[in-house]
Amino acid sequence: MCGIVGYIGKQKAVSILLEGLKRLEYRGYDSAGLAIQQDGKLCISRKTGRVEQLVKETAKLHYTGTAGISHTRWATHGGVTEANAHPHLSSDGKLVLVHNGVIENFAAIKHFLQGKDYTFRSETDTEVLCNLIAYHYAKEPESNAQSRFLESVRKTLLHIEGTYGIAVMCVDRPNEIVAARKGSPLLLGVGDGEYLLASDASALISHTRNVVYLKDGELVHVTPETFAITTLDQADVPPVVDRITWSIADAELNGFAHFMEKEIFEQPAALENAMRGRFSADGSTANFGGLNLAATDFRQIDRFVFCSCGTAWHACLVAEHLIERFARVPVEVDYASEFRYRNAPLDRDALFFFISQSGETIDTLAAMREAKRKGYKVMAICNVVGSSIAREADGGIYQHAGPEIGVASTKAFTSQLLISALFALYVARLRDMSFSDGVNYVQGLKAAPELVRKTLEQAPHIKEIAQRYAQYHDCLFLGRLSLFPIALEGALKLKEISYIHAEGYPAAEMKHGPIALVNEQCPSVFFVPKGELFNKIVSSMQEIKARKGKIIAIVTEGCELPDGLADEVIPIPDCHEAILPIIATVPVQLLSYYIAVARHCDVDKPRNLAKSVTVE
Ligand code: G6P
Questions:
Q1: pLDDT tens digit string along 266-285?
Q2: Which of 74, 259, 311 to mutate for ligand 1's pocket (most ligand atoms within 8 Å of CB)?
Q3: CB atoms within 10 A of CB 281
Q4: Three-class DSSP labels, 345-414
Q5: Which of 165, 428, 451, 576 has the highest count of CB atoms within 10 angstroms of its CB?
Q6: What is the pLDDT averaged over residues 465-482?
Q7: Ligand 1 mean position, distance from CA 335 (Å)
Q8: In whole angstroms, what is the distance from residue 358 CA to residue 342 CA?
Q9: What is the pLDDT of residue 511?
């Protein structure tokens, strides 16, 4: 949700900023802009639309400056206009700023500044922040040239309520950038005679793999030669330089048409990474290095509470099913945004899990802080190493799925399902699951990458089906038990990338409402795995067929459906129950993807969405 890139060093900043912005475009793509320090001036370019528009604009301008800041926007305050695009310049022309987050007390500050003759050209909260820095800068004694800029940012931030990742430049200090964060991610890339700032590592990895993850309440003062981190109350922070383990190739298309397609096909590898080193030596249970909780403590838990947003919330629903089914421990699932405010009564010995690909979703982070405040231990399942949620949790499990760039989550989701299955096994083996059932379960999990690979072979067949269904306006996704969350996920995938109205329901629940939608124009995607509910699901399909609804059936290989019942059949391999949600997800990802492509939708950057939602 808004991406920031900054550069200071010996090279021309413009191309580095633009390359970084392109990599962060998944965070927002309403407008893009940059500011370069050049010839004693702050040169600013801004364009509505994609970064490509900014590339065209700046190509004409031949910027040569070696320090700059830039931004790709997901609009919050103020419409999608050039005036609202970042960077924002203070009304005295001294300070320029890019911002990711929301300044909640911006109205009061704006009122105060208007009383001091500051003027505003945009509707944004960011411009208010920039002018408040200018106000403090003007008040700082000029004799204090060395630290005047840094201190004016620090003083400003003490008055700010809300969230921010910011990078600021001052016309009087051409060799400095000041950046800070609270609630929005920001990393410093430490290069050789150069430094980068970015909202995530993909924007700087082609220049350096050495990064410092800034923490909330920290500011960094960067020059071409060095950097220093301090807190809002001026304490020095010794930097911890981490090394990024993935490479630039992981963040490139590598021949795929879209990141979503690439990430769907990366799932076998992502699943292998999620499992690596996580099985016990006797092959009957799972091991986790980072939970920081002893087995005896897990035995005391009365209830697990899982909270998340979006696709990750669907992963929570699968975790609920698997833990309750195999470990027989009650699980509650909540939307993070609801949990935070609804003040739910909680069991004394509950343990919280927060699932988040990015580790930065503000609703999930806020819910986690709320659970912590109430004295509960909180665990995180995150993909992005060093992210806020991962850092603030008491323990957790990293997904190791590699960077996920497509806005619609795919490989991160199935990796979350695999980790949920591993965790269910771990708890089950601490309770009543036998050694041999554990061994069988482990074998089932180990088969997941190969079975996903096999399911991916259906891609050409699914692409053909997609051509036939691309022009419908509505679609139902129907599944039962662990595949009900996958019905929700299938519906979400389809609506977010192809803009087709879709709903996910438990298959039998369909007759209590959604069936009213069914006609020749509203197809239904049914999950029909082998097992005790097979015939019940077939009955639900008959009810749809009787109303002329078309049916796409995702069916376990070898299971026979009544003749003519399904219009389309997508076979999936037979598998252990614990990985069925993973296998069943693949066809609906591919179906949504190919339908969106057939509708000429911008698959990786669906309208109005952003990958990492860092505003409430
Ligand atoms: C956004 C994205 C979704 C994602 C959700 C939660 O809405 O568009 O794809 O599932 O945020 O993100 P997280 O990073 O917390 O998993």
A1: 999 999 999 999 999 999 99
A2: 311
A3: 7
A4: CCCCCEEEEEEECCCCCHHHHHHHHHHHHCCCCEEEEECCCCCHHHHHCCEEEECCCCCCCCCCCCHHHH
A5: 165
A6: 96
A7: 12
A8: 24
A9: 83
Q: How far is the CA of 611 from the centre of ligand 1 (A)?
A: 6
- CATH superfamily ID and name for 455-603: Glucose-6-phosphate isomerase like protein; domain 1 (3.40.50.10490)
Nearest CA to ligand 1 atom 8: 611
pLDDT at 77: 80
Max CA distance (Å), the chain: 87
- 589 CB near ligand 1 (under 6 Å): no
Residue 584 backbone dihedrals phi, psi, to 5 degrees: -70, -20
Task: Give the per-residue pLDDT at 352.
Answer: 97
Q: Tell me whether domains 3-244 and 455-603 share a fold.
A: no
DSSP 101-121: S-BTTHHHHHHHHHTTT---S
Helix count and strand count (H, E) for the chain? 19, 25
Question: pLDDT value at position 348?
Answer: 86
- What is the whole-number distance in angstroms between the Cα of residue 613 and the centre of ligand 1? 7
Which residues have C-beta within 8 Å of that of residue 369, sequence separation ≥ 6?
392
- Dump pLDDT digits (tens) for 539-562: 999 999 999 999 999 999 999 999
Give the orientation angle of helix 411-430 with respect to helix 310-322, to 10 degrees.
Answer: 30
Domain 3-244, architecture per CATH: 4-Layer Sandwich (3.60)
Overall average pLDDT of the 238-266 stretch: 92
611 C-beta closer than 6 A to ligand 1 = yes
Q: Is 292 helix (H, G, I), strand (E, B) or coil?
A: coil
Cβ 358 under 6 angstroms from ligand 1: yes
Parallel, antiparallel or unpaired: strands 31-38 and 218-222 = unpaired
Q: Which residues are marked as active site?
A: 2, 611
Instruction: Assess whether pLDDT exceeds 90 at residue 516.
Output: no
450 CA from centroid of ligand 1 (Å) = 27
Question: Does ligand 1 lie within 6 Å of residue 366's CB atom?
Answer: no
253-446 CATH, one of 3.40.50.10490, 3.40.640.10, 3.30.365.10, 3.40.630.30: 3.40.50.10490
Q: Which two tokens stand for residue 575?
A: 């598998």
Question: Does residue 492 line the site of ligand 1, with CB under 6 A?
Answer: no
pLDDT, residue 510, reads 85
- What is the average pLDDT score of the chain? 94
Sheet holding 524-528, edge to edge: 501-506, 474-479, 524-528, 551-556, 568-572
Does 614 have pLDDT greater than 80? Answer: no
pLDDT band at 513 (very low <50, low <70, confident <90, very high): confident
Q: What's the pLDDT score for residue 606?
A: 85
**Which tokens in the block code for residue 1?**
């949700």
The 10s digit of each residue's pLDDT in 281-316 is 999 999 999 999 998 898 889 899 999 999 999 999
pLDDT at residue 76 greater than cutoff 90: no
**What is the rounded average pLDDT of the residues 137-145?**
86
Q: Is the CB of 615 under 6 A from ligand 1?
A: no
Tokens representing 175?
A: 């060799």
Instruction: For residue 282, report the distance from its CA to the centre of ligand 1, in Å.
Output: 36
How confident is the model at residue 385, as a pLDDT? Answer: 87
For the CA of 361, the nearest atom of ligand 1: 15
pLDDT band at 434 (very low <50, low <70, confident <90, very high): very high
With a 6 Å cutoff on the Cβ, whether 407 touches ligand 1 is yes
